[in-house]
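User: quick one, sequence for these tokens?
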């Protein structure tokens, strides 16, 4: 999933994704911060 995919999602969808990625405090983030954290978590998970 890339940044354009994430930008097109609603905040509720991003929150669900963040929850699945075990991002702490995800419900307190603004959309753009949440997108950054999701990308960061996916990168760490994929070992890139």
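Assistant:
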């Amino acid at each position: 999933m890339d940044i354009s995919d994430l930008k097109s999602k609603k905040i509720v969808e991003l929150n669900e994704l963040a929850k699945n990625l075990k991002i702490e405090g995800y419900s307190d983030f603004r959309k753009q911060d949440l997108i950054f954290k999701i990308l960061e978590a996916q990168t760490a998970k994929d070992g890139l």
